[in-house]
Amino acid sequence: MPRARDPATSLQRFDLAAIAPMPWKNGGGATREIVCWPPGAGLEGFGWRVSVASIDRSGPFSAFPGVEREIMLLAGDGVHLQGPGIDHRLNVPGQPFAFAGERPLDCTLLGGASTDFNLMRRRDAWAGRIDILAHAVAPGSAPAGLCMVLAGAWRDAGGGELGPGQGLWWSAPAPQAGGLVPVPGTGARLAWIAMAPVLAPKCPAALMDRAPIAMESIA
């Protein structure tokens, strides 16, 4: 199932099997990019990005200044992440780990190759995180976001089913899209990311430009 837009909503369907891998920013691995928002922004200008990476050798992670990162093991033996203030073994599937993208970080394989789910977001522009859910969800209920089946089967509002590696993403609310429901008895689990823009603090220009008010002492 290639990427396709639902004509009735702003939802985009995807299937990892139909997404070609691309090299990492530092050339040390490969990733399947599910979404990079806004379109055409590339690795230097994205607001938020979700991908699935294949790691088959040890080496440094790419640096992404100003970016908050979250990584979660999908399959394989996992990796050992080490850097200033970080010493973490990512070896349990379905447990996200967050870190600052500008931190130098070395990645050491704990065995064979591993497959990881990744969220990156500009911290001054977008808020969001990875959650693992096993209950019904409503894609399009957040300002932007993504959901991907991790296990089992999920049924959409039209009766269609999504399996592992398949999912939906959206860049604008789509309340009319309906929901995704786990199919009983399939061990259904879903990676869920709800994104929201970070609002700049309100500081009227008139107040910024106003001269300090002199206070008179009262005898």
TrEMBL record:
Entries under PANTHER family matching the protein: PROTEIN VES
Protein name as annotated: HutD protein
Entry-linked Pfam families: HutD (PF05962)
UniProt-listed InterPro entries: RmlC-like_jellyroll, RmlC_Cupin_sf, Uncharacterised_HutD/Ves
Taxonomic classification: Bacteria, Pseudomonadati, Pseudomonadota, Betaproteobacteria, Burkholderiales
Matching Gene3D superfamilies: Jelly Rolls (2.60.120.10)
